[in-house]
Q: What sequence folds into this?
């Protein structure tokens, strides 16, 4: 048994008072959960503390909170580990517990999941629309495709990913990680009849799949390894490569422009990237009206950059390139990998570690050169 | 120590001062840079989004070139985004021998081959883990006393923790703070240090992108920062190059200088701001230059 100090964020909107922090000490074994700490406060010192929980076993998804600033499940976080984490980040071992972010607080640690999370889940038509014609008996589907969607089916709707989504913080209308992961669950399901329509909908919504800023917050937050950002990237890939959908955010054009520039230059040619992303994927892209508008609005920054000799006019126009031999090698890789592609997903070789796991060849001998080295510091 | 050095594209394109500063700072730390001038762009996560196998093959090519550098202890990069994008590809390549074979087959046309277990470290990690904070402290010529620095990591170098091997004994998501302190500076604690600069969606949702940059810059200013420091040139683009536009979106004057990590290190190791390319920033690092002038004057 040891003592732990919890610093809990208290707030009761109905009281008219501002939110405040409250410190309480609990005694528990260190392998017990933060949730048990919270429940001990509730049982022994302050019954009015608001927390939602049920299963206490990381199944129901109701106990999502922020612990030391990181979103997660209170019942899945060891109180000893939380204390050590607090020490490591300079908070002196005091465990900070706050409600999830990006959602309004109802009371203390309870947030309004209906107002944000569930509304967004509803937004993506979260149910299967059976493929027509409905077979007389069951749908027969490949085993791999069902395995493929198990990762998104593992979601327990805890909202931890929503809490810290940085796109949502800047743009609350963004559909967000949990709902988009749910969208993949049906896009990836061969029994669903609306794959194309779903993807079209999520691409044409400017706050859809191309509004994710790639911050990995959701990947880190998820207690179930759903990898929402990874699912969003797959939605983008399928929408653009397989369904030939052009989205409302220049996302596909940007992706195509970057990919083509690296094929042609080997390195990233930033000055071409911007106009091509807006205007179209060729050198003429910058003369497209959309590109011109964009360049005009970025002009103050660009002119300053040239004036400060940050970017030379020559570089802005010509970019940098790999030596010819290497460029040839890069092109060959593109041809080899992309040439094999056809509109069928199965021809893309996608290794999903969530499904295949890792090899057990962890102790292969280390190679020469820049080999794995013991830490020397 | 000798390293296979991957500067990335942006450090040789839109932020040339980063590549330049690294070249100046490395010898002062006894790092010998062997530049991987034949290697290709890491794809910044966008190629992987388009086609995972393509990104894995392109980066395996870079890794294979790094492994050919005789005597190099590891591969070093100077870009959070390269670190993250390359670590993601390496995770897949290292996890499955079958997959690795498949990728190596594509590379065999060029006579290249990637062997499992490359060490690829950002300059920030090299500073703390290879050179060591004590050694770094010992080499400081002009401690950054009274310079208030806000760390800005870039998403790709702090998440996901498992892939980047961020652990209790290896707190890579605290290294910037440790380095700023070792250089004698004051760490500014503000909300944005590990948030997103917004760059990945600058072409897709410009408002939301610049709102992110502007908000973090504003938060750092409110916390009294003289400047930010970042190991990521893409963050630098949104925080510095785009700062005048971000000001418009968040509706306030900002003018907060943003330094590249090697520039901050170079400053403490005795190099002058101009030598480190600080004249090339869009937001003139006035606070930093003033600081440096004052320190030099008081020493004279
Ligand atoms: S990666 Fe995308 S969806 Fe996930 S938290 Fe960041 S912005 Fe949100
Ligand atoms: S994706 Fe993960 S973090 Fe998000 S709601 Fe589902 S289980 Fe929770
Ligand atoms: S109480 Fe059910 S997930 Fe924590």
A:
């Amino acid at each position: 048994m040891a003592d732990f100090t919890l610093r809990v964020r208290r707030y009761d909107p109905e009281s008219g008072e501002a939110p405040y922090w409250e410190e309480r000490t609990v005694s528990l074994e260190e392998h017990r959960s933060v949730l048990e700490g919270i429940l001990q406060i509730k049982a022994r010192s302050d019954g009015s503390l608001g927390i939602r929980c049920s299963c206490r076993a990381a199944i129901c998804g109701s106990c999502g909170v922020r612990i030391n600033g990181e979103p997660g499940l209170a019942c899945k976080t060891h109180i000893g580990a939380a204390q050590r984490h607090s020490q490591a980040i300079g908070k002196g071992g005091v465990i900070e517990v706050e409600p999830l972010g990006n959602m309004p607080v109802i009371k203390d640690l309870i947030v309004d999941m209906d107002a944000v999370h569930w509304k967004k889940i509803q937004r993506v038509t979260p149910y299967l629309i059976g493929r027509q014609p409905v077979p007389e008996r069951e749908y027969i589907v490949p085993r791999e495709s069902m395995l493929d969607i198990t990762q998104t089916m593992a979601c327990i709707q805890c909202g931890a990913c929503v809490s810290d989504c940085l796109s949502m913080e800047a743009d609350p209308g963004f559909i967000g990680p949990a709902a988009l992961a749910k969208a993949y669950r049906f896009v990836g399901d061969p029994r669903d009849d609306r794959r194309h329509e779903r993807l079209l909908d999520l691409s044409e919504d400017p706050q859809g799949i191309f509004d994710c800023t790639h911050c990995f917050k959701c990947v880190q937050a998820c207690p179930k390894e759903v990898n929402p950002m990874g699912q969003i990237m797959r939605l983008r890939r399928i929408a653009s490569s397989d369904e030939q959908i052009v989205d409302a955010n220049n996302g596909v054009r940007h992706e195509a422009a970057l990919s083509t520039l690296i094929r042609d230059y080997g390195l990233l040619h930033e000055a071409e990237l911007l106009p091509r992303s807006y205007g179209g994927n060729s050198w003429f892209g910058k003369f497209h009206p959309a590109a011109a508008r964009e360049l005009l609005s970025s002009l103050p920054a660009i002119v300053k950059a040239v004036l400060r000799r940050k970017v030379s006019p020559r570089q802005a126009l010509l970019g940098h390139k790999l030596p010819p031999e290497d460029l040839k090698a890069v092109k060959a890789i593109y041809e080899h990998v992309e040439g094999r592609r056809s509109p069928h997903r199965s021809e893309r070789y996608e290794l999903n570690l969530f499904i295949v796991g890792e090899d057990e060849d962890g102790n292969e001998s280390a190679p020469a050169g820049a080999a794995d080295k013991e830490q020397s510091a | 120590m000798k390293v296979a050095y991957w500067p990335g594209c942006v450090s040789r394109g839109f932020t040339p001062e980063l590549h330049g500063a690294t070249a100046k700072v490395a010898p002062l730390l006894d790092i010998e840079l062997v530049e991987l001038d034949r290697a290709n762009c890491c794809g910044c996560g966008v190629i992987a989004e388009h086609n995972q196998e393509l990104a894995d093959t392109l980066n395996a090519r870079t890794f294979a070139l790094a492994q050919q550098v005789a005597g190099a202890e590891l591969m070093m990069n100077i870009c959070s985004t390269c670190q993250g994008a390359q670590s993601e590809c390496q995770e897949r390549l290292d996890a499955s021998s079958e997959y690795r074979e498949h990728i190596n087959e594509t590379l065999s046309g060029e006579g290249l081959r990637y062997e499992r277990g490359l060490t690829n470290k950002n300059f920030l990690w090299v500073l703390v883990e290879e050179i060591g904070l004590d050694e770094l402290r010992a080499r400081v010529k002009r401690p950054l006393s009274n310079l208030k620095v806000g760390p800005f990591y870039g998403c790709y170098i702090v998440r996901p923790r498992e892939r980047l091997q961020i652990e209790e004994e290896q707190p890579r998501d605290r290294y910037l703070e440790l380095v700023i302190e070792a250089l004698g500076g004051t760490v500014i604690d503000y909300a944005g240090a590990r948030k997103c600069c917004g760059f990945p969606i600058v072409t897709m949702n410009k408002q939301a992108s610049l709102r992110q940059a502007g908000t973090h810059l504003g938060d750092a200013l409110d916390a009294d920062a003289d400047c930010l420091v970042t190991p990521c040139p893409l963050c630098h683009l949104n925080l510095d190059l785009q700062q005048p536009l971000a000001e418009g979106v968040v509706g306030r004057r900002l003018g907060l200088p943003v330094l590249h990590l090697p520039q901050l290190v170079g400053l403490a190791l005795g190099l002058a701001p101009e030598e480190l390319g600080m004249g090339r920033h869009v937001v003139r690092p006035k606070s930093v230059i003033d600081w440096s002038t004052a320190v030099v004057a008081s020493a004279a």
Summary: The pocket of iron/sulfur cluster (ligand 1) is lined by residues A 165-167, 177, 212-218, 228-229, 232 (CB under 6 Å).
